[in-house]
Amino acid sequence: MKLLLKAMFGSIDPDGNLLAREVKDDDTEYLAEVLDWTEIDGVKFDVKFRDGNLEITMEGSDLSPNVTLNYTTKINVVKQIVHKIPEAKFTSSVLNKFIRKGNKILSSEPCNREKRIPPNIVLIKEIEGID
């Protein structure tokens, strides 16, 4: 199965507090490429920057769109992704691993080191299943 995620880069501090959402700059497309073709637990992530958003396609077995998002406009906290039904437990686990791994990769990118508000976290806005 494939899942399509609409997302954006945000910025968090070392304690995980959300500093900014929709962080875009001259390096945004490059940073999407850095995360492109990440593989976690047999799930491949195709990451592209299109029309001002990140488009992430997840491809693998046992994926389900029945998970919560890690981002909401109502609070300034990046939340853990949680499964809504038992069959989506694998998906929530893989997505949380991807977000943590992405944070480590983005935080260590040379182009982000000197930025006051670096794009260093993937904020997921929508998830849908596609075939």
Describe this structure in words.
The chain has 131 residues and is an alpha+beta fold. It has one domain. The protein is built from two helices and six strands, in the order E-E-H-E-E-E-H-E. The chain has helices at residues 28-35, 89-108; strands spanning 2-12, 18-20, 38-40, 43-50, 53-59, 121-130. Strands 1, 2, 3, 4, 5 and 6 form a six-stranded antiparallel β-sheet that branches. Strand 4 (43-50) and strand 5 (53-59) form a beta hairpin. The longest helix has 20 residues, at 89-108. It is globular, with a radius of gyration of 14 Å. It starts with a strand and ends with a strand.
Salient structural properties:
single chain, 131 residues, 6 strands, globular, 21% helix, alpha+beta, six-stranded antiparallel beta sheet
